[in-house]
Amino acid sequence: MRIVELTESTRQNVLNDLLKRSPNNYSQYEETVSEILSDVKENGDRALFAYTQKFDKFRLTPENIRVTREEIREAYAQMDPELVEVIRRSAANIRAFHEKQLRSSWFDAREDGTILGMRITPIARAGVYVPGGKAAYPSSVLMNVIPAKVAGVTEIMMTTPPGPDGKVNPGTLVAADIAGVDAIYRAGGAQAIAAMAYGTESVPKVDKITGPGNIYVALAKKAVYGYVSIDSIAGPSEILVLADETANPRYVAADLLSQAEHDELASAILITTSRELALQVSAEVDGFVARLSRREIMEKSLENYGYILLAEDMEAAIQTANDIASEHLEILTKNPFDTMTRIRNAGAVFLGEYSSEPLGDYYAGPNHILPTNGTARFFSPVNVDDFIKKTSIISYSREALQAVHRDIERFAESEGLTAHANSVRVRFEE
């Protein structure tokens, strides 16, 4: 891995380099996505089925678009029973973590007859997109569905592309069943996003779409935002390790590669105050890459977006980590909890040498659908709040309104909204 002295210039170069990976920079695909969305919006099932035939080589019909219970039973039979139990345990951990995020409605009543409050209600229907083929990740099914289930969403439906034989990845089906999905539809790509956003004869319109996908899926989600809510526009995976001289270089190297293997656009960065650690990590990375299975992907990822940044001190290292706002941040320092208190921006933080990133991907319980491309400065991981709505409640008695009505009228009139003022004034006419 390249080792770079951390200066203001190199810091800015790294930030600019990482931003090139944003889905916002793939405008060349937007016209194609727009055509697909418009076609499905106008022609419903006919367009959805045609695109499935074109891209997935499977002939969809109203009778076979929905996965049956028999197919789900077959998926269980195809799975290693021990892996099914691992998925169940992972689901239990994810559910327990997200249950702690639940909120309750609240009301504040005062003696003058004022009642203010906030009513918490789940959205009615959530749509989850799940990639197919080699990119099928049952863990992401759990992370999308379980928070919605905990929130109390009435109906959770899932779309995922079929193979040419119409089959859906068995791991995806088993995870969906364990998580509690209500309906699974064979549809993928931008056309599946359009079907969930607008509704077709076979696929009902949803209120929110979550889940990862390729650039066409990401741009489709971006385009339908407003017709429905979405979780985020996910970019390529990324990891940042913040380490001092106490870190184990072998652990650091292994953790960097856990994200570099995702794809050629993945980012893996070490920021350290120790030159010796930097050299050791670079050597360990070379050793791992030479024998791990996704060698070509990792080499390309590290060549494009892999860095070891040598910081003058921990203060400069932490400032850069906050500027990068990484999706995953591992802290491997002498006192990781103290270091963590100075971190403002990260999707998920992993503390100490036995909290490697895959623990969060698969098992611990916190959500692994995280903000990328620096958006951890203002976005959060997928959570229960993503699937609820907050409704303000206001009730005033005559006595309570009488005490403040002139203030309201004056404020409204200052904005030139005389009908607003009149709406209050008429209640106190002689």
Largest sheet: 6 strands, parallel
Beta percentage is 15-25%
Counting DSSP E segments of at least 2 residues, the number of strands comes to 14
Q: What is the spatial order of strands in the main beta sheet? A: 1-11-10-9-12-13
In which range does the helix fraction lie?
A: 40-55%
> Based on CA inertia axes, which overall geometry fits?
globular
Structural category: alpha/beta
- Head-to-tail CA distance between termini: 81 Å
Report low-confidence residues grouped into runs of 5 or more.
Answer: none
What's the gyration radius in Å?
Answer: 25 Å
Mean pLDDT: 94
Per DSSP, the total helix count is 18
Molecular structure report:
This protein has 430 residues and is α/β, with parallel strands linked by helices. Strands 1-11-10-9-12-13 form a 6-stranded parallel β-sheet, with helices on both faces. The longest helix is centred in the N-terminal third of the chain and has 19 residues. The termini are far apart. The model has no long low-confidence stretch (mean pLDDT 94).
List keywords for this structure.
alpha/beta, six-stranded parallel β-sheet, 14 strands, globular
Walk me through the topology:
Layout lengths: L2 E3 L2 H12 L10 H14 L1 H12 L12 H10 L2 H19 L6 E4 L5 E8 L2 E5 L8 H14 L3 E6 L9 H10 L3 E4 L2 H10 L9 E3 L4 H10 L4 E2 L7 E6 L5 H12 L6 E6 L2 H17 L3 H11 E5 L3 H11 L3 E5 L3 H5 L7 E4 L5 H6 L25 E8 L2 H5 L2 H10 L3 H8 L5
Parallel strand pairs: 1-11, 4-5, 4-7, 5-6, 7-8, 9-10, 9-12, 10-11, 12-13
Antiparallel strand pairs: 2-3, 3-14
Helix pairs in contact: 2-3, 2-8, 2-9, 4-7, 5-6, 5-7, 6-7, 8-9, 10-11, 17-18
